[in-house]
Amino acid sequence: MARIVTCERIVAVLAAVAVASWTATAAADEPGERGISLTAWAGGAIDRSVTASDGGHRVNAATPIFGATGVGNIERVAIGGAIDATPEVSGDGSLSLGALLGYQQQVGRTRVRALAEGGERRFSPVVGAPLGANPWIPYAGVRLGAARTIPAHGFIEVGVAWLARTDDRLDGFMTAVALEIGLRLEAPHPWNQGTREP
User: Fold this and answer.
1) Helix (H) or strand (E) holding 15
2) Which of 110, 127, 129, 166 could in theory staple to 148 by disulfide, Cβ–Cβ 3.0 to 4.6 A?
3) How far apart are CA 41 and CA 141, in angstroms?
4) What is the pTM of this model?
């Protein structure tokens, strides 16, 4: 078990290093833009954050995940928030609320994002906790994704995203892949208003 957790932490650290390196070496000569993306998404997750009370083995190894994000950007700086849940028929599940901060690069109609993520996650129900108690557990992670508008200057945005999270309190790890659909609202950059494109 300790070996699995150590491997998961190594993967998370390597992902964070890759995001930082990619951000630092990104091309600086492409024009940026200003806008906000509001998306709903759904996918599948491998969640190893919870252990069973009868033996300590990990439970809920595979689960659906549903969420929504709002990410705004000026130039290549992106900031936003996210909410997601992993519901189950039995009533067990979790709810996560987080903040996003990172980098966005425009390549044609496609936006590529590399975001750091931090927030809190609530599990329900929690064995051994007082009735009605749903403790919040802090987590940190990374989120990589790509999205594009349809048509070229339209408002519909579709994309894909991958995320990975860890939490020290539970020695847990979760990773997920999701499909996104939503709205993209853009405006001219305030510094470039009044200038003519070449």
Assistant:
1) helix 2-24
2) 110
3) 18
4) 0.72
Distance CA 184, CA 46 (A): 29
Residues 26, 105 contacting (CB under 8 angstroms): yes
Band (25; pLDDT cuts 50, 70, 90): very low
Instruction: Tell me the DSSP string of 91-105.
Output: S-EEEEEEEEEEEEE
Q: CA 85 to CA 80: how far, in whole Å?
A: 18
Diameter over CA atoms, the chain:
68
> Domains in the chain and their CATH numbers?
2-187 (2.40.160.20)
CA-to-CA distance for 198 and 196, rounded, in angstroms? 6
What's the mean pLDDT in 156-168?
92
- Whether 112 and 148 have beta carbons less than 8 Å apart is answered as no
17 Cβ contact list (under 8 Å, min separation 6): none
Q: Choose between 63 and 141: higher pLDDT.
A: 141
Q: Which of 34-43, 58-67, 134-143 has the lowest mean pLDDT?
A: 58-67
Q: Which residues pair with 111 in a beta bridge?
A: 106, 147
Q: Give CA separation, 129 vs 31, 40, 100, 132, 139, in Å.
A: 52, 32, 30, 8, 20
